[in-house]
Design a protein that fits this description.
Elements: E1 6-10, H1 14-26, E2 30-34, H2 40-46, E3 51-55, H3 63-71, E4 78-82, H4 87-95, E5 100-103, H5 108-128, E6 136-139, E7 142-145, E8 150-153, E9 156-158, H6 162-173, E10 179-180, H7 181-189, H8 199-210, E11 221-224, E12 228-231
Parallel strand pairs: 1-2, 1-3, 3-4, 4-5
Antiparallel strand pairs: 6-7, 7-8, 8-9, 10-12, 11-12
Helix pairs in contact: 1-5, 4-8, 6-7, 6-8
């Protein structure tokens, strides 16, 4: 099973979970399915999960809380499933570390396409982050190294998701330059940027939280309103 991708599916609607399992199995994936959050973290500890699908509404907790717990230790892609369509919920999920957001009802083939895109993206992160000769940066106590994919703040290790690490590293590689939001998105996510996309903003907020930054007076990542972001020299 070492070469088989393992997918975690958590949804209290049995019909949806079983349908996704059928499509995933047909494409050669190994599926771990749950109808509640009970046992999910134990499953992740015992198995090499490559991607998770989490329903927002669960009988014993909510998908946001489960996403938050997962992100404390693991960095595989997370796709949130929900019947809600409010932008606030999408931003909440992204801020907590989710990588994509799928609204119910959905077509299983759309979900499969999203899963494959996220798995491809996860596999290309290491290639995109291949270290250069001097790919280590120390900016007023914030140290990031592409050589070992580690980041620390004043000597304390910061645990970024692959996307968060990619954002910080890209800004460090372009120190002092204003990076337009659409360029940052396309360079990190390898997708076309759309005007209504709040993904970058949500991830920057999450990065600042981990760096203990005040969003109104950030020390490291500055917002250039109407344009994008830059890492201060």
């Amino acid at each position: 099973m070492s070469g088989t991708k393992q997918i975690l599916v958590v949804d209290d609607e049995k019909e949806i979970t079983d349908l996704l399992e059928l499509y995933l199995n047909n494409d050669g994936y190994c599926v771990h399915k749950f109808y509640s959050a009970q046992g999910v973290l134990e499953c992740i500890q015992k198995n090499h999960i490559d991607l998770a699908l989490l329903d927002v509404m669960l009988p014993d907790t909510d998908g946001f809380s489960l996403c938050r717990e997962i992100r404390k230790k693991w960095f595989f892609p997370i796709l949130m499933l929900t019947a809600k369509i409010e932008n606030e919920d999408k931003i909440t999920g992204m801020t907590l570390g989710a990588d994509d957001y799928i609204t119910k009802p959905f077509h299983p083939l759309e979900v499969m396409a999203r899963i494959k895109a996220q798995l491809r993206r996860a596999e290309t992160y290491n290639q995109a982050l291949e270290p250069k000769k001097t790919d280590v940066y120390n900016i007023r106590g914030l140290e990031i190294s592409a050589n070992d994919h580690k980041c620390s703040l004043y000597g304390e290790e910061i645990f970024f998701t692959p996307i968060e690490f990619s954002i910080v590293l890209y800004l460090c590689r372009h120190l002092g330059q204003v990076i337009p939001t659409e360029l940052l998105f396309e360079e990190v996510w390898k997708e076309k940027y759309f005007d209504s996309n709040n993904t970058v903003m949500a991830h920057i907020a999450r990065i600042r939280e981990k760096l203990h930054e005040d969003a109104r007076k950030p020390k490291f990542i500055k917002t250039v309103w109407g344009i994008g972001y830059k890492m201060e020299e």
